[in-house]
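Hi everyone, sorry if this is the wrong subforum. Our group has a chain we'd like a structural model of before ordering constructs, and none of us has done structure prediction before. Sequence below.
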Amino acid sequence: MSTHSFTAGDYAVLDRSVSDSLGEVYEITGVAAGLLTGRPIGGGIELDAQVHLWQPADPALVADAQRMAAGGFANGDLVVLAPYYTRRTTAGVVYRVNEIDGGKKSVRATSVVGGRVIRADFDGWRLAPADLAAAALAKASASGADPAAVVEGAVVTIAGRGWKQPAGQLFVVTRRAGDEKVRVARLGGDGGRYWPSVPLAFVTVVAPPAALVVGATVWVMHYYQRPEVPEQTLHASADSAYAAMAKIARDRWAKAGTECPELAAQPPADPQELIQAYFGRTNADDFAHVEEQTVSA
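Answer:
Right subforum, don't worry. Here is the predicted structure as tokens:
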């Protein structure tokens, strides 16, 4: 609880329990009984909060916030997105500034842990709180992976606390799940089974995506659902592609079954039987197929 007596013009930060305040430094603009009003240094909407939620801002933090508000970014600055720029997948992610465009008044930055690149206007960035910056740097130094290499289709091994699959087993990254985690499936397929939230620090890349190697053979799973835009995913093996196709069928079986009497109450356990039963039904509004391709330049 704050014991500081604030006056208009003081600079303060809010407790993390207050939503949409991460990284903000406020200038106090109003003082009332038990309530303070603050305006973000970098611009934004004034915010009212109870006195006990405010703490005085360190002068160095104030100076950095004022520098960034004036467009004085420096390569290497550790930053977070301003609250009104943040989405669920970027909340609390720490980035390192690596390109400043004074003409467009924008900054390009790379996440410290996950390696993802994002660009936003000057007013979309705030200095990363010291504790978040330290935690991100520690995670990055502990990770065995080069974040830039962990892309969809990369072949990886996984090891870490709580990971129970066999050591040396090969997996394929099927999706980046936020900044610090990935979704993987066993190389060659495993009946549609996948692991949705593997920490990036557990991952070691052993081969680039087949889709990036000219002359490599890949399998493309095409999925169409009217009236949606067709989707396609690249796979290192036919088994993996058909496993993805079977997973779609299994995930959609119950919903389709309410509209299609051809489908049994429970889907077949065998992936090929499942694919045939689901995608072979009459008057289906979605369908899929697997195509073998050779990657060209």
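For your construct planning: Residues 70-140 form a domain with the SH3 type barrels. fold (CATH 2.30.30.30). The chain has four domains: 11-63, 70-140, 147-208, 217-294.
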